[in-house]
Amino acid sequence: ALQGGYQFRVNPEEIFERMFGSENPYAHLFDEEGKEEFGTMFGYAFGGMKQKPLESLPPLIVPVHCTLNELYCGCLKPVTYARRKLKPDGRTTIEVSEEKLIEIKAGAGEDDRIVFTKQGNEAAGIENSELIFLLKQKPHSYYTRKGKNLIYKAKVCLADALCATPVEISSLDGRTLRIAIDEVINPHTIKIVNGEGMKFSNGTKGDLHLHFEVIFPKFIPAEAKSAILVLLPRV
Fold it and tell me: Which of 20, 23, 64, 234 is 20 to 30 A from 94, comparing alpha carbons?
């Protein structure tokens, strides 16, 4: 009430109607659900109140290059990587270098993932991204991997191939494997050793496939040729 007993009783909506031809002159700034549109005058003026939610950050993917020995045995591997981290102001970010010790289980393979939730990149007003370590296998000098099995190419001289001499190779965990051969070896021979392939943390194992490369001599003396013809008659 004002002095003199006068009271102001005009409806505010009626004033808008008289001045703007509408009860709400800002109706065009709202969508059909009555929510502010992102980027409107109100959104910027009042700090983006009721803005549509931001999309989530993409995951931070860090390749981790492992030897076949590490994937065979399993290991703890320190990995250094860069990620975006919020500054103390809570608005801007800076790139920082961090290190994490990750567990690689026995039998892990190419493109396996080790995921840490909400430990990746940061940004203002949004949840941290996932941190994903993506395993990659380095080439090995002698072994290749095919699923749960290992393939080893053994080089043998012609004499050992003909005499089926046992083959000795070093396993991926450092053991010496002496493998008996029960046939004459030729370039197409494959020897399968059960249980000597990849081993896994759950106790299962693959097989070892031995492929052979027969090394022929570059020169045979004349006197040796006669002996060879006697021992190895033409068929």
Answer: 64
